[in-house]
Amino acid sequence: MSLRHAVLGLLAVEPSTGYDLARKFDRSLGSAWHASHSQIYPELSRLEDESMVKVLSEGARRSRTYGITAGGRDELRRWLVDVPPSRLQRNESGVRLFLTPRLLGPADARIALQRDLDDAIAQRAELEGIDALMREADDEHPFHPAVDLGLRVNEVMQDWLRDQLAALD
């Protein structure tokens, strides 16, 4: 996934400032993709140079609200429909989970697996909070499916980690 397409997608949902985009990454895409202000602003500039986004308004402290252009929508559609997604991902947690039972004794494996389970439980609580806020704002919030996916994947991960912990007994 490219930052460019994530930004275009978020702007297709709703025009936003760079600051708003960073918050949306944290609140809606955070489990799939993290983007900092220092990444978002240069990408917005490149997209503007390529006429994929345009400045809709300027506000206080030189904040700029960006919107997607027809060219940006065409590029987003091309990426969503024509470009197969990369299934190759670097996932540190996945590598650790692969190595943990092979390289650690049961006591250390339990510590590592319990840490991951605790993290998954905390992530679920965060996702549930985001879900509740979205439902308060609008039951048909455009990011609800992404949060729902995060909740479902999290549940599977918690079940798997509990199974791994039980197998150590």
Describe it.
The chain has a two-stranded antiparallel sheet. The protein is elongated, with a radius of gyration of 19 Å. With 169 residues, it is mainly alpha-helical. The mean pLDDT is 84. It is built from seven helices and two strands. Helix 1 crosses helix 4 (70-82) and helix 6 (106-137) packs antiparallel against helix 7 (144-168). 70% of the residues lie in helices and 7% in strands.
Topology:
Layout lengths: L2 H11 L4 H12 L7 H13 L3 E6 L5 E5 L1 H13 L9 H12 L2 H32 L6 H25 L1
Antiparallel strand pairs: 1-2
Quick description:
With 169 residues, the chain is mainly alpha-helical. The chain is built from 7 helices and 2 strands. 70% of the residues lie in helices and 7% in strands.
Features of the shown structure:
169 residues, Arc Repressor Mutant, subunit A, 7 helices, mainly alpha, elongated, 7% strand, two-stranded antiparallel ribbon
CATH architecture of the largest domain: Orthogonal Bundle
The N- to C-terminal Cα distance equals 40 Å
Total discrete domains: 2
Mean pLDDT: 84
Tally of alpha and pi helices: 7
| Class from secondary-structure proportions | mainly alpha
CATH topology of the largest domain: Arc Repressor Mutant, subunit A
CATH class of the largest domain: Mainly Alpha
What do we call the CATH homologous superfamily of the largest domain? Answer: Winged helix-like DNA-binding domain superfamily/Winged helix DNA-binding domain
